[in-house]
Structure formats: structure tokens, C-alpha cells
Amino acid sequence: MINALRWLVFAIAALAMNFPILVTLVTSFKSARELSTNPGLWVQAPTLDNYLAVFQVSDRLNIFLYLLNSITVALIGTTLAVALALPAAYAIARGRLGERTLLPFIVNLRAVPLIIFAIPLYMMFQWLALLDTRLGLGLILSIVNLPLALVILVNAIRDLPGELDEAALMDGANRRQILLRVIAPVCRPAIVTSLIFGFITAWNEFLFGLMLTTSKAVPITVGASFFFAASGGGVQWGVASAVMVVGALPPVLLGLIMYRQISGSMTAGAVKG
Amino acid sequence: MNTQGAHSSEFRLLAMPLVLFLLVFLGFPAIVNLIYSVSDVSFETLRQPRITGLSNFAAVWNDRAFWQASWFSFRFGALTALLECALGLVLAIFLSPLIERRSWLMAILMLPLMVAPALVGLMYRLVLHEFAGPVPYYLWAWFGTSVSFLGPTSAFWTLIVVETLQWTPFALLLFYMAYRAIPTEIVEASAMDGARRWHLLWYVELPLMAPTIVVALLIRFIDGFRVFDNVYVLTGSGPGGSTASLSIYIYEAFFKQGAIGKAVAASVILFAVSFAVLYGLNFIASRRKGALR
Amino acid sequence: MGKISLRKAGKQYGTVEIIRDLDLEIADGEFVVIVGPSGCGKSTLLRMIAGLEATTSGQIVIDGHDVTAALPVERKLAMVFQSYALYPHMTVRQNMGFGLKLAKLSVGAIRAKVDAAADTLKLTPLLDRYPKELSGGQRQRVAIGRAIVREPVGFLFDEPLSNLDAALRVDMRLEIAKLHRSLGATMIYVTHDQVEAMTLADRIVVLKDGRVMQQGTPHELYENPANLFVAQFIGSPKMNILPCKRNGDGQLDLSGQGLLEMPLRSDAAPVQLGARPEHLSLVAPENGHCRGTVEAREYLGGTTSVFVRNPELGLINVSAPADIGFGIGETVGIHIDNVRLSLFDAAGAAVIASP
Ligand SMILES: Nc1ncnc2c1ncn2[C@@H]1O[C@H](COP(=O)(O)OP(=O)(O)OP(=O)(O)O)[C@@H](O)[C@H]1O
Ligand SMILES: [Mg+2]
């Protein structure tokens, strides 16, 4: 009885929270004609026309470019963040360097409204000719990713026994060698987790994409909104929906993969705690 | 050469790239921010800012829109944090017996977290659209009436619901993990003591989850306070700036009005307040930790 | 070569002194065991010698070279950790060869050395496994193998057997002893375990609060403890400590519970008497040096520990033959072997018994 109630609550919660995703998915399969008569949650005559339209390149809209931009900036923003965070995390966790300065500062970055850096970065990028480039946007996204990557990696390294480092010291390794040959391989799960988290965050970022790009380096989150400012005759909702489905798919798929890791660490935590 | 010294110089070298990177991409902009905030500057005179003192700050201070945006951000952050955590807590505890056995249920609930807030905002343009959107459609069909969701009177509450529905899963996930982490011995011990389900929840489980609840409230408030993406694509600054968050206020001052000085001065204020509050919170947290030890 | 000297070596954490002015000379090829209560600084001392912990005062000299500030690898020592600290992502072969690889030895040379060490430790069939695929004892062997391949001048062990079960511990103990004989290298070994200390050591160093309380062969420490602390720390079960006083006739007065003939130097003023359980025996009440009632018995197979309560002397542990007839509540006499006992003065220092 109570279980039936639980299922009911779950169904309502899942429906409510996923409602926009569901509606978008459904709408992306509706023809323009059907949309004008049937805005409901059911598709009468499913069609792929909207997706074909989305992948049509015009001089104003080029989804391939947006996707390529998003992939590139997300990869830059993720790998750079992890590459910078890993050695720093090692210095913080083992050398106890910056535990009270660098670490809290970067953690606080996670909580600061990003807009406060956006304006000077815009000007700086103008001088450096990094405006509307993938490299520029990728660099900034790595700042966005730094806090989480650093926290994940510091915690992972702290969880390793210090004797591992000491054994390597006795074996004649210096700190850099210990990091590359012992710590990094052992921390691979944490590194993968921060890469995936980072990729999702970077892919989904909007503010910097909006401010720092105009045409060449526009990411999909910004590019998707171009499909709404349609050319006369109002928004083509079917096409717009298809664009959003395409734009949301990569992080959602990645998230479902990462979900396994999260539930894995959940059970690990349950066993430990 | 002292071993300890040798180690710390090796460590310093390892932390160096990150520090340099931050200095270039945050330190330098921070300085630019400070200089421009006390200068008379426009897009034409970017390279030759003229120092004019605190007039930019005065302009921000006297701008009603700035205070309106601050109030919006604060209210938005507080309300969404409370709603998300309340909903998340109830769902986490109530659904935990289901999720324990079928972890894929959590995957479904977490799905909204993976979608860009900007895209979710755009999706709601469709969901709430008066002709193409299913919500007004069903409201008309069932109740014969509908609401102008993004109109002046309801825009704020619509945004609250949009934000809450997307981010409740975050609180839910955090609470679910904290709830599962409660040692079964404690629960069993209090059951042996004759505690009722309700008492168990109130006197044992919730207090044990309290730290997580505080953290979740804090994170959600911060993210609500600095909201930009979904609000920007849904309503922009809204009718009469009624839905402008501080982030949107600064963005529009800069890009729409070209009021660089004002935008930068507002950034500096936000920067100072944010860091002051955050470091204050860190300080309190570390003091409490010390007290526990 | 593996002569290790500590000269007034000290270690401070902030204002807390963990090791103070410690002098220790370890000869080449010697097996030194460091024992002491938990927290006394055994691990710290070992890690100072290894170079993992900075020495804050004094010197550490290995084979005539001052290595106080040298890197761990420059000291040519190898360490075996309590948790083994094997690299989880490397096979046994890679684990053992890691140090050699860092030292840029050729692949062939590494292979030869690892194979030789694996042969000694019977690890050859396990060379391609990962640590998680090994049993505790096998991991321990790999940790030792990793230490051997670098041909260090000395080995440092920090409670290496404490994670193993009792039977395996005996095997590994014998194996380490064998290894010491065949390699002839200096070994410094930290342990909690009495038996390990007694059986392995050429010399035992007893540490307390960062100071050496006594050092000597196991026999010396057992028979002639220099002070109350060592007397109670070495030996299992623990030595009985009984209050006593010297009377006018040169006899020892056991708090009015009995008298003991004891030739003593005229200026000696013992206040406590130490007698190991095996140096006491149970006799009829009227024949003993003192008496008491049996409070508990612990049958240990070979012997029985009988706990006798005396109102003034406290609980006395007597190691009796396994089938001893006295039951709980019975009054018994205790005979004290006055040749094997130790005497301590008010400061806890040993009093020389015979002049
Ligand atoms: N990093 C540190 N900072 C301050 N004090 C420390 C530190 N490391 C160890 N100590 C202190 O130094 C003392 C000696 O520690 P050590 O680990 O050497 O003891 P031990 O004799 O090996 O004990 P055990 O038998 O339990 O292993 C302890 O009192 C410990 O609290
Ligand atoms: Mg120790």
C-alpha cells in the first residue's frame, strides 16, 4: 500500500522534473501542421523532418559548427582544468601547500557569480584577440571547472595512504615522478570522474559562451537560442525542439554513464560509513 | 640541503602552473576591474581610461535597478534553496526504499541536472507557450482558462518553479546519500529503545543529516543568487527589470547600455561582498570544526 | 657496508619533542630491534633514519657519511612498511623493479635482479600478478622483495608482520631471520611483538618517550633489566613487582608478608622487587616466602598461570606446572628464587643485587 504510494510519488516527481525534456522530445517529432492543432503530449504522425531541418546548414545557422565548438571548448576546458588541478591537488594534499589559501580560494570560486570576471575577461580577450575563439572560451571554461576538479582530486589523494608516496621516495622517485607514475594511475577513477563532470559543466555553460563568442566559436547552448529567433513567421517549435534535443544529448548520455560511478561511490560510502 | 625544504620546493613547482594560470586569468581581470571601476570609460576609450574616482560606484548606488536586481537575486536564491531542499528532503526519505533496490530510478530523477540550464529555459519557452505549449493547452482543455506565465504578475513565480524543478534533484541526491550513510546500528539501537518511526526521523535521522542540509541550502542559495542562464533566455530582465538578477543587471549594463563603468563597479561590489561572505562562512565552518575536535 | 650512527639525533614537531638527543651505534650486519610502548617514537626514529622525516637536531651518519640532510634514496636504505605500500597499479615484477627503473638500469639488468630476488622469496610464479591478487603473506614478501632488489646497505622494517595472522607471522619471522643471515645486511626492525624482538634481535633497543631506556642482547635485557620500565616491558607475561624494604639484618622485608635472604651492597636501598612468574613457584603455605589466596587460574597448555592475591603485595602471577593442584580460594605459599630476581630503587633504577 505504502509502496504503491511511493511509486505514485516517484512518477509525479519524475514527470514534473523531466517535463520540459519530455515535451521537447515529443515536440521534436511533430510536424509543423500537427503542432498548430495538437500541442499535447502525444504525437499523431511522428516525423524526422525537424531533425533534417536542424542539420541543414545555412549561412545563418550551422549546427555542425556549434557542436564542434562545444566539443572543442569542453575538451579544452576539461583537460586543462584537470591538468592544472592534479599537480596542485598533490601539492595541497601531500605538501600541505596552500591548504589554507589556494584551496579555499578556488573552492570559493565555485560560489562566486561568474559575471564579475566576465567583463574584464571580455576586454582582455579583445586585446589578446581571443574573442570568439574556441581556445579563448576553452581557457575560461577551465576556470569554471577548476573548483570541482581540485576538490575531487585533493580528496582522492588524501584518501591514499602516505606510505605509497614514501615507498616511492625510498625507491628514488622525486615528487614529479611520484605524481605521474604512482598517484595519477592510482587516482584514475577520480580523474575520470572530474573529466566527466567537467565536460558536462563546460558543455552546459552559457554565460561565457554568450559574452565571449559571436559567430566562429559559438557553442551549442548559445547556438540553440539562434533557432528561436526565427526568420519571420514566429518560432518553428519543432525545429527548435530538435535542436535542444541534439544539444542536450551528449551531456545526458555522459551523465547516465557517470551515474554508474556515482552509485558505485554511493555504495562504497555506505559500506565505509 | 634539508629534505623537508627540498620537498616543499618540489611541491611549489607542482602548484605553480595553477597559480600562474589564476594570476593571468583572474588576477589580471581583477585589476582591470578595479581600475575601470574608478574610471570614466566607454567602448571607444577602452585603452585610455580616465580616473574619475568613485562616481561609478555612486551611479550604481543610486540606481534603483541595482537594488531591485539585488533584491530579486536574494529572494530568488532564498526561495529556490528552501523549496528545493524541502522537496528534495521529503522525496529522498520517502523514495529511498524504492531507490535502494532500483538505482536506475535515481538516474531518471537526476536527468534534469545533466541538461544545460539555458536549454531548460528555452524548453520552458515551448512548454509555456500560449499556442504551442502543452501546459496552457491542457489548462484550457481541462479548466477553460490559462495563465500568462511569463507576464508581469506571474513571471517571478514561474521562474522560481522552473529553477526548483531543475535543481531539486541535486538536493535529493545529496540527501539520499546522506540518508543512506546513516549507520544502521544507530537506527537499530534507537528502534531497540522503542523509538517510533516519527521520533526516529525527528530525533535521530534529521539531526544526523543536518550538516548535509546546511550545505545543500548554501549551495542552492548561491546558485540561485547568481542565476543567469535560464532567467536570461526565458524573460531576460523582464517587464520593468522585474526579473533581472544581479548577473543580468551587470550583463545588460555592459552589453546593452555600454555603461562599462557602472557594470564594472557593480562587479566589484558583488566581488567584494561575495568573497567577504564566503570567507566569513569558511571561517565559521573551520571554527566549528575546531570546536568539535 | 651498513654502519649506521645516530649522534644526538632529535625530532621536534613544533614545540613537542618526539625524539631527544638519541645516540645509537649500529654495526654493519647487525640486527637491531626497536621496541617501546605505542607513541614512544619508534616509527619516527625509523623514518628519520630513512630520510622520510627531517631530523631537527643532531646527526645521522651512514658508513662515515653525514646523511642528515640527504634524500631517502641517497642513503641506500630500503624500507618495508606495515601496510606494505605496494603500488596497486603495477604487477609484482613492476613493483619490485620500480626503483631500478628510476635508477635507469637497463631492462635486462632489472629483469635479472628481479628474477633473482623473486627466486629467493619464492615469488617467481606470482611475478605477473597485481597486489590485489595476492594474499597478505605474499604481499609482505613482495614488499621485502622490492627492498632486496636495490641491494641496500640496510633494511628498515616498521612492524612488518603486524597485519598477518599468527601462523604466517611465525613463518615470515623465520624467513626474515634467514634473509638476514644470507644477505648479511644491517637491519633495523620496529615491533610491538615480544617474541619477534627476542628471536630476531642481535640487540634490542627499548625506547620510551623518545629516549633509549636500555639496549643490549635479548638475554641481557631479560635477565638484567636496567630499570623498572624495561623490566616490565620485556618478558611476557609481565614481571611481578612487589614492594619491599631492606631491614637491619640485611634481609628484604616484603611489606611484613615475608622475609628474603639477599646479599646486597651496603648502600643499596631497593624499594621494589621484580620477579618473573617463571621464577616463582607455588608451595605449601608454611614453606613459602610469602602467601596468599588463589584468585584465578589460566590454563595455557604447557603451564598454568596462577594469580595469587596477597593483601599487601597485590596480585602475583605465578607460572606453575599445567596440572598444579591448587584450586581457587585456596591459600598457597610462594617461593621466590632469589638468584633470578631484580631489585629497583626509588628512582626505578636497577640495584645491583650481589656486591
Ligand atoms: N605529524 C606529527 N605531528 C605531531 N606529532 C606527531 C606527528 N607524527 C607523530 N607524532 C607524535 O609522535 C609520537 C611518536 O609517534 P610514532 O608514530 O613514532 O610512535 P610509534 O612508537 O611508532 O607508535 P606505534 O607503536 O603506535 O606505531 C606520537 O606521540 C605522535 O603523536
Ligand atoms: Mg609506529
State the main characteristics.
heterotrimer, B: 293 residues, mainly alpha, MetI-like fold, 2 strands, C: 355 residues, alpha+beta, Rossmann fold, OB fold (Dihydrolipoamide Acetyltransferase, E2P), 2 domains, 5-stranded antiparallel β-sheet, 8 helices, 22 strands, 24% helix, binds adenosine-5'-triphosphate, binds magnesium ion
Topology:
The complex is a heterotrimer of chains A (273), B (293) and C (355).
Chain A: H1 2-27, H2 32-37, H3 49-54, H4 63-94, H5 102-109, H6 115-127, H7 134-159, H8 162-170, H9 175-186, H10 188-204, H11 207-212, H12 220-226, H13 237-272
Helix pairs in contact in A: 1-13, 4-7, 4-10, 4-12, 5-7, 7-10, 8-9, 10-13, 12-13
Chain B: H1 3-37, E1 39-40, E2 50-51, H2 55-61, H3 64-101, H4 104-114, H5 117-127, H6 134-143, H7 155-180, H8 184-192, H9 197-225, H10 229-234, H11 246-255, H12 260-292
Antiparallel strand pairs in B: 1-2
Helix pairs in contact in B: 1-12, 2-12, 3-7, 3-9, 3-11, 4-7, 7-9, 8-9, 11-12
Chain C: E1 4-13, E2 16-26, E3 31-35, H1 42-50, E4 57-62, E5 65-66, E6 77-80, H2 92-102, H3 107-120, H4 136-149, E7 154-158, H5 166-183, E8 186-190, H6 194-200, E9 203-208, E10 211-216, H7 218-223, H8 228-233, E11 240-243, E12 245-246, E13 251-253, E14 259-261, E15 272-275, E16 280-283, E17 290-299, E18 303-310, E19 314-321, E20 331-336, E21 342-344, E22 350-351
Parallel strand pairs in C: 3-8, 3-9, 6-7, 7-8
Antiparallel strand pairs in C: 1-2, 1-4, 4-5, 9-10, 11-15, 12-13, 13-14, 15-21, 16-20, 17-18, 17-20, 18-19, 21-22
Helix pairs in contact in C: 2-3, 2-4, 3-4
The structure holds adenosine-5'-triphosphate and magnesium ion.
How would you portray this structure in words?
The complex is a heterotrimer of chains A (about 270), B (about 290) and C (about 350). With about 270 residues, chain A is mostly helical. In chain A, about 75% of the residues lie in helices and about 0% in strands. Chain A has one domain (about 50-270): MetI-like fold (Orthogonal Bundle). Chain A has 13 helices and no strands. Chain B is an all-alpha fold. Chain B has one domain: MetI-like (MetI-like fold, Orthogonal Bundle). Chain B contains 12 helices and 2 strands; from the N terminus they run αββααααααααααα. In chain B, strands 1-2 form a two-stranded antiparallel ribbon. In chain B, α1 (about 5-35) packs antiparallel against α12 (about 260-290) and α3 (about 65-100) packs across α9 (about 195-225). The longest helix of chain B has about 40 residues, at about 65-100. Chain B is globular, with a radius of gyration of 24 Å. The two termini of chain B are about 35 Å apart. Residues about 1-5 of chain B have low confidence and may be disordered. With about 350 residues, chain C is α+β, with helices and mostly antiparallel strands. Chain C folds into 2 domains: about 5-225, P-loop containing nucleotide triphosphate hydrolases (Rossmann fold), CATH 3.40.50.300; about 240-345, OB fold (Dihydrolipoamide Acetyltransferase, E2P) (Beta Barrel). Chain C is built from 8 helices and 22 strands. In chain C, the strands form 5 sheets. Chain C has a 6-stranded mixed sheet, with helices on both faces. A 5-stranded antiparallel sheet of chain C has the order 16-20-17-18-19, with no helix packed on it. In chain C, strands 2-1-4-5 form a 4-stranded antiparallel sheet, with helices on one face. In chain C, α2 (about 90-100) packs across α3 (about 105-120), α2 (about 90-100) packs parallel to α4 and α3 packs across α4 (about 135-150). The two termini of chain C are about 40 Å apart. The model of chain C has no long low-confidence stretch (mean pLDDT about 90). Chains in contact: A-B, A-C, B-C. At the A-B interface, α1, α4, α5, α6 and α7 of A face α1, α3, α4, α5 and α6 of B. The structure holds adenosine-5'-triphosphate (ATP) and magnesium ion.
